[in-house]
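[retry 2/3] Ceramide synthase 5: previous attempt timed out, resubmitting with same input.
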Amino acid sequence: MASAAAGALGLLWGWLWSERFWLPQNVSWADLEGPGDGYGYPRARHILSVFPLAAGLFSVRLLFERFIAKPCALHVGIEDSDPHLAQPNAILEKVFISITKYPDEKRLEGLSKQLDCDVRKIQRWFRHRRNQDKPPTLTKFCESMWRFTFYLCVFCYGIRFLWSSPWFWDTRQCWHSYPYQPLTRELYYYYIMELAFYWSLMFSQFIDIKRKDFLIMFVHHLATIGLITFSYINNMVRVGTLVLCLHDASDFLLEAAKLANYAKYQRLCDTLFVIFSAVFMVTRLGIYPFWILNTTLFESWEMIGPYPSWWLFNGLLLILQVLHVIWSYLIARIAFKALIRGKVTCQGRIRPRLCTLHSFLTSFFFSMPGGNWTVSSLACFQR
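[retry 2/3] Ceramide synthase 5: success.
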């Protein structure tokens, strides 16, 4: 029995690390065992170093939020106060958890008769109960400030590193001598740090305040980790660095706009959001398809030819582009609907356009409890 299990495990392991899937023709894992230069060639075992690094990043985050982000939040006027707790009520709690968090008039009247209580008091109880589950603004500010700091630092590091890299100026260099492209110290640090950060976000979800988009965020982080890990193992790290840097370019701007919104610096928030939207559209709908996908689909086909993991890698990148289009459409549609609503709600005001933008940004940012603006913007639109 033991020998049969060992044989089955060996077959599974051999299938998982099949050279025919991971590597181009006439290339084996043994060919990539050589020292190369710098840190050698990317290997799956390098991924193990991510986990202690992710734990270290999480520890740094806790210290950062307590000793840097929280004082900054208090300095800009964000109060360190707990939400008003709803009074314990077994009947209303059962309705809130099992039936609805937003009872209609008919249900409110029924509860009023059942509890011999005024309808307004019941409405107030449900409002307090809903607010009780929302994370305080101070918590959201600290989390956004941590993400803003990391995204900004890693983006600056990525730009500095890529500026002196030949494949940043000529994407065909991503495939020159592939897969015999040894790691450099800077490239290794950049890739592993990005992967460790997303692992730290995966860990923190289980101890942070429970959010309504927990499952979606879990899948999002898992997919990101999978794509980064996959590109590292089959040594597509050169083009992977371009993808990472391109996405980081707009992420820190979004977090900065959220910080301004939480601090109620609305004009700064409006400005940052406009800049973020422009950078997002240019990078995700312009540079990404015409620069990244062009080299992964066409230049790589010409220089190294397709093989199984090549198809999977490009399939994932194409799915990512579809998501970019959907997210951009949702942003534009939400903004348009907010603009239409603003024409009605802001009549008689001197500057209706600013009022419209203010109302849109407020609903947009406060609909992002989990920090994932793409998912939460969809939720905002559905409401």
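[retry 2/3] Ceramide synthase 5: The radius of gyration is 25 Å.
[retry 2/3] clearing retry counter.
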